[in-house]
Amino acid sequence: MRLPTDLDRLYREPPPRVSGVEVHGVIDSTNRRALELAEEGAPHGFLVVADRQTRGRGRRGRTWSSTPGDGLLVSVVVRPTRSDVAWEWLPLVSAVAVARSLRDLPGVAVKWPNDVLVAGRKISGILVERRASGTPSAVVGIGLNVNQDRFPIELEGSATSIRMVTDKPADRADVAAVLAVELDRAFAEWQEGTGEAERSYRALLDGVGRPVAVRPFQGEAAVHGIMEGVDASGFLLLRTEAGLRTFAAGDITLSSR
Ligand code: BTN
């Protein structure tokens, strides 16, 4: 038995363009559950949502922590109808969907590869996971800060939430409904291959033309250069003293060097 939350409305009023919803009070990870459901055949657009996660997964082996009532923790099953989709763009296209869903907030941008920022602070992180075998499907997991009014000391100054930006609490079911529409639109653009989602990504990308430090592997030395944008695969282009370098993965920091 658990206390109802604002998320329960998702059962009564499933968001538009969603093929099914599973709402949890507490779960280890919505990504873990969505991958399980995808393996069992869950259709494209199936959502797993939770009030809290005990083992929320972040990018590059990090964790994503949550407190009840605060964040939107959602994973969506993606099952493209085409076999030739550009999988490497899925994490970036997902960030476009989150950014578009927050368009009413001032200063929305994307930090490569797929953090969503508001006024320079992270409001959302995305983790895309795919099983190597089986049918071509993936899970896009999104952590979106909604009702936090403060963050732990280590995130103070670098994280924000919808409530902190607008000074008002938000209903997570409403936030999820807007996000679901934008995810559906961005996934459709991605599959159609018209370049629209990629153009939107480039328009939202923060730091182009500025000095950045790239850490391709955790714990390793950073590579400094001027960020030139992303290439046709969504990989980061960095102009260094030794020439143009491309990074398929990494963390970037806007630096003053
Ligand atoms: C990042 O490191 O920035 C990505 C964080 C992704 C967190 C979300 S919360 C919902 C989904 N379930 C998980 O276990 N992780 C993702």
Number of strands: 12
How many structurally independent domains? Answer: 2
CATH topology of the largest domain: the name is BirA Bifunctional Protein, domain 2
Give the N-terminus to C-terminus distance in angstroms: 54 Å
Q: Helical stretch count? A: 6
Question: Strand pairing plus helix content: what structural class?
Answer: alpha+beta
Q: Please give the order of strands in the largest beta sheet.
A: 1-2-3-7-6-5-4
Low-confidence stretches: none
DSSP helix fraction? 10-25%
- Based on CA inertia axes, which overall geometry fits? globular
Task: Tell me what the CATH architecture of the largest domain is.
Answer: 2-Layer Sandwich
Order of helices and strands: HEHEEHEEEEHHHEEEEE
CATH superfamily of the largest domain: Bira Bifunctional Protein, Domain 2
Largest sheet: 7 strands, mixed
The bound ligands are: biotin
Q: For this entry, what is the oligomeric state of its chains?
A: single chain
What is the class of the largest domain in the CATH system? Alpha Beta
List its traits.
alpha+beta; 257 residues; binds biotin; 24% helix; 2 domains; 12 strands; BirA Bifunctional Protein, domain 2; SH3 type barrels
3D structure, described in words:
With 257 residues, the chain is of the alpha+beta class. It folds into two domains: 6-204, BirA Bifunctional Protein, domain 2, CATH 3.30.930.10; 211-254, SH3 type barrels (Roll). The chain has six helices and twelve strands. It has helices at residues 9-12, 30-39, 90-101, 162-166, 172-192, 196-204, and strands spanning 20-27, 46-53, 71-78, 108-111, 115-118, 121-129, 138-145, 211-215, 223-230, 236-240, 243-247, 251-254. The strands form two sheets. Strands 1-2-3-7-6-5-4 form a seven-stranded mixed sheet. β9 and β10 (236-240) form a beta hairpin. α3 packs across α5 and α3 (90-101) crosses α6. The longest helix has 21 residues, at 172-192. It is globular, with a radius of gyration of 18 Å. The termini are far apart. It binds biotin (BTN).
